[in-house]
Design brief:
The complex is a heterodimer of chains A (878) and B (306). Chain A has 878 residues and is an alpha/beta fold. In chain A, 40% of the residues lie in helices and 20% in strands. Chain A is built from 33 helices and 26 strands. In chain A, the strands form six sheets. Chain A has a seven-stranded parallel beta sheet. Chain A has a seven-stranded mixed beta sheet with strand order 22-21-20-23-24-26-25, sandwiched between helices. In chain A, strands 5-1-6 form a three-stranded antiparallel beta sheet. In chain A, strand 8 and strand 9 (330-335) form a beta hairpin. In chain A, helix 1 crosses helix 3 (36-46). In chain B, helix 4 (123-140) packs across helix 5 (162-173), helix 5 packs parallel to helix 7 (198-204) and helix 8 (235-245) runs parallel beside helix 9. The relative contact order of chain B is 0.14. Chain B is globular. Chain B contains ten helices and twelve strands. In chain B, 39% of the residues lie in helices and 16% in strands. Chain B has helices spanning 34-37, 49-61, 83-94, 123-140, 162-173, 181-191, 198-204, 235-245, 271-293, 299-305; strands at 7-12, 29-33, 64-67, 100-103, 144-147, 176-180, 210-215, 219-221, 224-226, 252-255, 263-264, 267-268. In chain B, the strands form three sheets. In chain B, strands 1-2-3-4-5-6-7-10 form an eight-stranded parallel beta barrel, surrounded by four helices. In chain B, strands 8-9 form a two-stranded antiparallel sheet. Chain B has 306 residues and is an alpha/beta fold. The chains are: A alpha/beta (878), B alpha/beta (306). Chains A and B meet through helix 1, helix 3, helix 4, helix 7 and helix 8 of A and helix 2 and helix 4 of B.
Chain lengths: 878, 306
């Protein structure tokens, strides 16, 4: 008997009530369903019922003890529970049951995270003040877990000492300051001071003053206890502003009305605590991973690429294609083995051909092309992305190439999101899934397969509970199945999992019969995709229209297409033009339908280097290779063409500044949308997810916000951010504003916030129509037009875009099923973008070998304060 | 590897802290449970903040020896990611312990199923476990002893008696044995009918590899004998101690208690009564040690003689 299998089987008994019951009282049918080896193990445990029962009891009592021990990490929540009328042991036992008897072992913070989330969802702790307490502890836990994954180079205590040693003065010259990673902030709606001052003795029946408060949470040293301090609004703003390094002189510019003296005073206070440090003292993980070819690099360490010596040789990997097209002053390179792309500034493109084909001495390269631009930076970056190899020889043997590629593959593993494919119908699948999710530090892409959803009711329920408890994290979960029929509980589990379902083998372009279970599934708001294998009729508009009509009428989210070159052109006679026509047809379908992808090709997430590629299934013939390369090339060009140079935020951090949380209309006034815990909201044109994230607390854990965004890569970024921040009630779906994939009346509210393009494209009325359709009578819709960054000096002049769009919006709302109940003009004043890093504000998706936007804005056409002005129209659905 | 002969000590169990007068005792050694004092594996730091001061005090007063229940030492996950590698090893170095011991259980990222999961006594597992033991001992840089387990049932797939398995592991790993005599006693009570024998156990294991001895007590509940550490050291265990001491020379004999209220003669004692029983056991253990090795053979008596 394999010891590993015994161990895994035993752990399954411990966590599965039904299996435990079957083992302790043999005779049930479940054991007989198992294969031989597992049956023998279970039968062995069944042969000693008393000892097995003792062991199971001991395990479960241990879990309760551990859960309560985890509370010692979060004294506020601990006090809350122990002062309540509840029996802590019983609550901990409920928690362990609700989380399927998961054992977090030495990962006590994770256990605390699950328990605090569980307490927050219990009705006994629904009071706002108690939710505040739990939220504060949740923030502490998040900080601890973050520090567990990556400790700061300089702990606050040491930073404070260093600051004092430097004379406790902020150098107003070139020094830049940034928040210490060992510190975070949390905001509450109540003043928790008396509780924080007496965490173990506070009388929880005492009323807490309702007042907005900001709290600094920090860990002075690795071995210290967590410390809390109340932040003034000003300190909070400055601290938040310093999430990216800033010069001291820049601070007052960001906050109109803040004097240099006042800013210095706050900054000095923060530096004295060590929670703000000089940028060079705080090495932060970068958004774009730095080169990792040194091999021993640890997470978060920034490694300066060593300059390649003149006598070394470099060459592009033979699998790298240099694309002809020039897009946005960039040339694209595509690595056909790694299936990723990078963009190279066109100015440097002459040296690409020199790097292609055979190794070239770096010295010669520098002499010939050094004048064109940052050549060394390009070499380091191409090497980092696995596109370029460095050798000491003028030739590269096949063995050497294989070794270099292996190194690249290994390095990439630590930088990309892992994907996990599991066949739920295979006996060991659950253990495999559970083990992978539990031990993975990062959230995974999970792709599950099964013949019938209904067969996995329990597994999906358990997985949903684990996710809700914060025990496991998935970046995204997709379940492919042949049979959608299942009960309401299973559909609820899918929703709690944030999972989408792909129905396999649907006839192209539309099935000729109703699909069992489909209507129930979409009615439950679960995203459903159909997996089709189109023939070449996809080239015809009529066939695509039929597919679109079927998808639209069934409220299906979109299509997964399986396009195999050999099946489409059996004699393999297709030309590049034929491929281009096919991919053009798929693009046309995508523009009309919103969410269409080719299932057997790398996803955009893979192409952009964010996710591990799946194994190829096309056999890898030369014809299949040609087809695949053609796809990679055209898709990369498409993604690059989606980029733009206008300055709407493109990172979640920058997005937070477009509207500061304190000024955001709907999150601060959820009654305007009549939001309640449990509400379902559709966020149309959801972008990076700010609107969804901010509305999430208003709908609570039982609510759901479905965020629809046209650009798949933005949906993916939004999902990533939400996942990192442990949001569980947000579902990001690629899709179109004018074709919302939800049945009529399935949402309580719909919101849209956009800058104007949707109106200028003439899609506004269709969008408002769709929003009205998906919201139930009695629900509300809110459409916001935002006019970003208007210099205050120009407020007196006509607001050209605004005035025009306002008229269009009013016209779109003039419908019998909508009645406008409120119009609100609101907004904020901001400093200019001076001091901001340009990357955060520009649409850039394809990885670049040199980032032309890695600059700080140093001048502006209209210096001085600007206004972000918003108009929101809110209507009742009649 | 060098094993100092310390004498008789107590386990520094968190259940005893705050009421048991550790500092007033002439203890030859104090056995620290790494799991209880380390920071969670998924957070920063090494020693939990609330234990830093206490650990500092005891380290100044007593020789510290290291012990762990939940290291994940013999599980199936990568060894470098376990509590043993990431917390216990640096703790052992911080307190300069002369040896470390762990339990012969599976655990990995789970704590609560440790006690229900004795190692599978199979040939294949002996090889795998020995390789991990050897690698872990190298990380510690001091002798690593494996504690024989008390269990309610053996692991499915076991194909040899526990003692043969342990002897094989030690043979392959060059590590050591941490003998828990009460566990032997408990196993014989629970599994004697199915062939478990303390005598055979002691005749099979390499006694010269014993670096430390655990002594404890337990109770019968519902027809099973439990290794609860909530009574005085069981009477039969004292005889076994004399037997073992006379055949080997361990570094220490450590007594284990896990409650401020020991059970005694069907009663639950108060703290004072509990302290008295523990002190009596300590005296008895010292007497056993001294009978075997001489009056000046323990750390606290060496100086008196000098």
């Amino acid at each position: 008997m394999d010891a590993r299998l015994v161990w895994d089987t035993w752990r399954q008994i411990l966590t599965d009530d039904q299996l435990a019951e079957d083992v302790l009282h043999p005779g049930g049918e479940k054991l007989n369903d198992l294969d031989g080896a597992r049956f023998a193990i279970l039968a062995d445990y069944a042969s000693t019922p008393q000892a097995t029962a003792t062991n199971i009891g001991m395990y479960r009592r241990g879990l309760v003890r551990n859960a309560l021990a985890a509370l010692s990490l979060v004294p506020l929540s601990r006090r809350l529970l122990y002062q309540s009328s509840l029996d802590p042991d019983a609550v901990a036992a409920d928690f362990t049951r609700a989380t399927s008897y998961a054992d977090h072992g030495p990962n006590l913070w994770r256990c605390a995270a699950g328990l605090v989330a569980y307490l927050a969802a219990r009705p006994e702790f629904a009071a706002h003040s108690w939710q505040d307490v739990l939220a504060l502890d949740a923030a502490t836990i998040a900080l601890a877990r973050q520090l567990g994954a990556c400790a700061p180079d300089l702990w606050p205590e040491n930073a404070a000492t260093r600051f004092a040693a430097r004379g406790a003065r902020l150098d107003q010259g070139s020094a830049r300051f940034v928040t210490n990673r060992a510190a975070t902030v949390a905001s509450t709606h109540h003043d928790l001071t008396p509780w924080l001052e007496n965490p173990d003795g506070f009388n929880t029946s005492q009323e807490l003053e309702p007042a907005a408060r900001h709290w600094l949470i920090y860990l002075p040293t690795a071995g210290a206890a967590y410390d809390y301090a109340e932040f003034s609004e000003r300190a909070f703003n400055i601290f938040t502003h310093l999430s990216v390094p800033r010069n001291v002189a820049d601070i007052p510019r960001a906050f109109p009305g803040l004097s240099q003296t006042a800013a210095l005073k706050v900054m000095t206070g923060l530096a004295e605590l060590g929670v703000v440090v000089r940028a060079e003292d705080s090495v932060r993980p970068e958004v774009t991973p730095a080169p990792t070819h040194q091999g021993t690099q640890t997470i978060g360490q920034r490694v300066k690429p060593a300059k390649t010596p003149d006598d070394a040789f470099v060459m592009l990997d033979p699998a790298v294609d240099i694309l002809d097209a020039e897009i946005g002053q960039h040339r694209l390179l595509c690595h056909s083995l790694l299936e990723i792309g990078v963009a190279v500034p066109s100015a440097l493109s002459p040296c690409l051909s020199a790097l292609n084909g055979r190794p070239i001495a770096v010295g010669a390269l520098r002499a010939a092309f050094g004048h064109l631009g940052p050549l060394d930076k390009m070499l380091a970056s191409l090497r980092h992305h696995g596109f370029l190899h460095v050798t000491l020889e003028g030739k590269l043997s096949a063995e050497e190439l294989a070794r270099l590629r292996r190194d690249v593959a290994q390095d990439r593993m630590s930088n990309v999101r892992r994907a996990l494919a599991i066949d739920l119908d295979s006996p060991a699948s659950w253990d495999q899934l559970h083990a992978n999710l539990e031990t993975s530090g990062a959230a995974l892409e999970v792709l599950l397969h099964c013949k019938r959803l209904a067969c996995h009711k329990q597994a999906l329920a358990v997985l949903a509970r684990l996710r809700q408890a914060g025990t496991v994290r998935m970046h995204r979960t997709v379940i492919q199945t042949d049979d959608l029929t299942c009960d309401a509980h299973t559909r609820q589990s899918l929703l709690c999992l944030g999972a989408s379902v792909v129905l396999r083998d649907v006839a192209w372009p539309a099935p000729d019969h109703a699909i069992p279970g489909l209507a129930d599934m979409v009615r439950s708001r679960v995203a459903v995709h159909a997996l089709m294998r189109p023939d070449l009729s996809i080239l015809s508009q009529a066939a695509r229209d039929r597919a679109l009509a079927w998808v639209t009428s069934g409220f299906i989210s979109g299509l997964w297409l399986r396009l195999e070159a050999v099946a489409l052109w059996p004699v393999q006679d297709a030309s590049q033009d034929d491929f281009a026509a096919l991919f053009g047809a798929v693009r046309a379908l995508e523009s009309a339908m919103g969410d269409v992808r080719i299932e057997n090709m790398p996803s955009d997430e893979v192409l952009l280097g964010n996710t591990q590629p799946a194994a190829r299934t096309d056999g890898g013939s030369a014809f299949a290779d040609r087809f695949r390369r053609a796809y990679l090339h055209q898709r990369l060009c498409f993604l690059k063409s989606c980029e733009g140079d206008n300055i709407w935020s493109q990172t979640p951090e920058a997005e937070e500044k477009v509207v500061r949380a304190a000024e955001d209309l709907l999150p601060n006034n959820p009654d305007l949308l009549r939001l309640r815990p449990g509400s379902v909201v559709v966020d149309v044109c959801g972008g990076l997810g700010r609107v969804a994230r901010r509305l999430a607390p208003a709908v609570g854990q039982d609510g759901l916000i479905i965020s629809i965004e046209m650009l798949r890569c933005l949906s993916d970024r939004a999902r990533q951010t939400a996942c990192e921040q442990h949001f569980l009630n947000l579902d990001f779906r690629p899709g179109l504003a004018q074709r919302l994939p939800l049945p009529d009346g399935t949402a309580d509210a719909a919101v849209n916030e956009w800058t104007g393009a949707i109106w200028e494209l003439g899609l506004g009325p269709a969008m408002v129509g769709e929003m009205a359709r998906v919201v139930r009578p009695g629900g509300r819709i809110a459409v916001t037009h935002r006019l970003v960054r208007m210099p205050l000096t120009r407020l007196g002049q006509p607001w050209v875009q605004y005035d025009q769009i306002y008229t269009w919006m009013r016209a779109a709302f003039a419908r019998s099923d909508l009645k406008i109940v409120a119009e609100r003009v609101w907004g904020q004043t901001i400093a200019s973008l001076l001091g901001e890093n340009a990357t955060a504000w520009r649409k850039q998706y394809v990885p670049r070998i040199a980032n032309p936007l890695d600059v700080t804005y140093e001048s502006e056409d209209s210096p001085g304060p600007h206004a972000d002005i918003y108009l929101t129209i809110i209507a009742d659905r009649q | 590897m060098n094993i100092p002969q310390l004498g008789v000590g107590l386990q520094f169990n968190p259940e005893l802290i705050g009421w048991f007068p550790f500092f007033e005792q002439p203890l030859d050694a104090l056995e620290v449970l790494f799991d209880s004092f380390m920071t969670p594996l998924d957070g920063p730091g090494l020693i939990s903040p609330r234990w830093v001061e206490v650990m500092h005090q005891i380290a100044a007063r007593f020789p510290i020896v290291g012990h762990s229940n939940y290291g994940g030492d013999f599980g199936f996950n990568e060894l470098t990611g376990t509590s043993a590698a990431r917390r216990h090893v640096p703790l052992a170095k911080r307190f300069n312990v002369p040896w470390v011991s762990n339990h012969c259980f599976y655990s990995d990222a789970s704590w609560c199923n440790v006690w229900s999961s004795p190692l599978q006594f199979s040939r294949a597992e002996a090889v795998r476990v020995a390789a991990r033991a050897r690698a872990l001992q190298e990380m510690y840089g001091v002798p690593l002893g494996h504690e024989n387990a008390a269990y309610y049932r053996t692991c499915p797939g076991s194909e040899m008696p526990e003692e043969e398995f342990l002897a094989r592991v030690l043979d392959l790993s060059d590590t050591y044995l941490h003998l828990d005599i009460h566990n032997l006693f408990a196993n014989e009570l629970n599994h004697g009918a199915s062939g478990y024998s303390v005598r055979r156990f002691l005749a099979t294991i390499p006694l010269d590899r014993i670096i430390c001895i655990h002594m404890a007590g337990g109770r019968w509940i519902d027809g099973q004998y439990h290794d609860l550490h909530d009574t005085q050291v069981a009477e039969a265990v004292w005889d076994l101690l004399d037997y073992v001491l006379s055949r080997t020379r361990p570094g220490a004999v450590i007594l284990e208690y896990e409650t401020p209220a020991l059970r005694h003669n069907e009663r639950t004692l108060d703290t004072q009564g509990t302290i008295e029983l523990i002190l009596a056991d300590l005296e008895r253990a010292r007497a056993s040690w001294d009978r075997t090795y001489g009056a000046a053979s323990r750390r606290t008596t060496l100086r008196e003689v000098a």
